[in-house]
């Protein structure tokens, strides 16, 4: 018994000690677990606070960006600044994520020591707890940044357009279909008409216009859709009235002289434009065609005035966007050069202008701008994009163009082309606002007996190919001239 009792007490002591140590371990584990959870909560709160600080900072920067100086000189610099800000935000968010990841890693190390889960399992569990919350906050911030960037981009583009338009406030030059000529007295009306209408007939045949002599005192009207013809006719009649000698021979003499002077005047007009804009040298053929644009209208808008407006607006826009101002000015000036040829050649003014500029070795940017301003190519440079925007601005501003006039001139031009397409027709002029087509026949190719058939064929073609209100009179004229010189 003396041996057994101590042995029993010893075992009881061991059991009590083991039980006490077990309780102590459990309590210690609970303390670690509580401590880990507290640290996790603290880290979560810190992360939440960091995110809230980031949101507050983003809001402050949003408010500050609205107060930035609106006088931005360069779109590309503004875009780079926005990209840099976004990169900084992204870097800041990355730093927040890295910091939280580091803290979570430390916490998982502690938890792995006192819990049965591995370090990987503890990390995954904690990341799952905060992943959705963090992703939601990041998505909100990203969307806000993108929206703000888009709004400021549009604001900047509108500002650039407004600046360019404000710097150029050109006058609008409209074109009409009638020129008015003042005469000293009604006696000159009789001279212009001539005996049995011989003079007015000669004038209309040679000049290709409709001359209206009515009861309005001291006034004669010259009507035609072609500005160049009308300008020459006006000058010829003025000189005949001043001279006082009006007969077919004098009419032809004055017409030839005025026509030569106009050709020289056209070149001088184009040269003046090129020199004023500082774009010399330029091929003389292009200079001449620029001068012809003064006598060309598009939707009632004078093409030379439109061209100058586009050139100056292009220069301003290119300056705002950091492009080559002089190249943009040149591209704007030549973007509609093909319109000087459309009354004499088939094809669109875009193709005609581009081919012409290629022929005379203009810069590829100029050629791209010609194609791009009507959507046949995409703008490949800042300068070409500036021309496209300037062309739209010039054409779209209130009162710049009238579609009714353009459709009328197109119909009258087609009317003349239909008549000229027939064999034996030397000249064809639409008069009386397009209600009559006057056709002059080559007497060597068509005899008197064939005139009736020719006019019938022309009228038939007009009915089939052209849409027009009312009726159109086809008036064919054939005459034989004999010239002999006494030596």
Task: Explain this structure.
The chain is 67% helix and 7% strand. It is mainly α. The chain has a three-stranded antiparallel beta sheet with strand order 1-3-2, with helices on one face. Strands 6-7-8 form a three-stranded mixed beta sheet, with helices on one face. The protein has a two-stranded antiparallel sheet with strand order 4-5. A hairpin with a 6-residue loop joins strand 2 (210-212) and strand 3 (219-223). The longest helix is centred in the N-terminal third of the chain and has 63 residues, at 4-66. The N and C termini lie far apart (178 Å). Mean pLDDT is 78; it is low at 171-175.
Features:
single chain; 487 residues; mainly alpha; Ribosomal Protein S8, Chain: A, domain 1; Hypothetical protein af1432; 4 domains; three-stranded mixed β-sheet; 8 strands; rod-shaped
Main sheet properties: 3 strands, antiparallel
Number of strands: 8
Measured as a percent range, the helix fraction is: 55-70%
How far apart, in Å, are the first and last alpha carbons?
178 Å
Q: Ranges with pLDDT <50 over ≥5 residues?
A: 171-175
Question: Overall pLDDT, averaged?
Answer: 78
Largest sheet strand order: 1-3-2
* Radius of gyration computed on alpha carbons: 43 Å
Strand content: 5-15%
The secondary-structure element order is HHHEHHEEHHHEEHHHHHHEEHE
Principal-axes shape call = rod-shaped
Number of domains: 4
By secondary-structure content and strand pairing, the structural class works out as mainly alpha
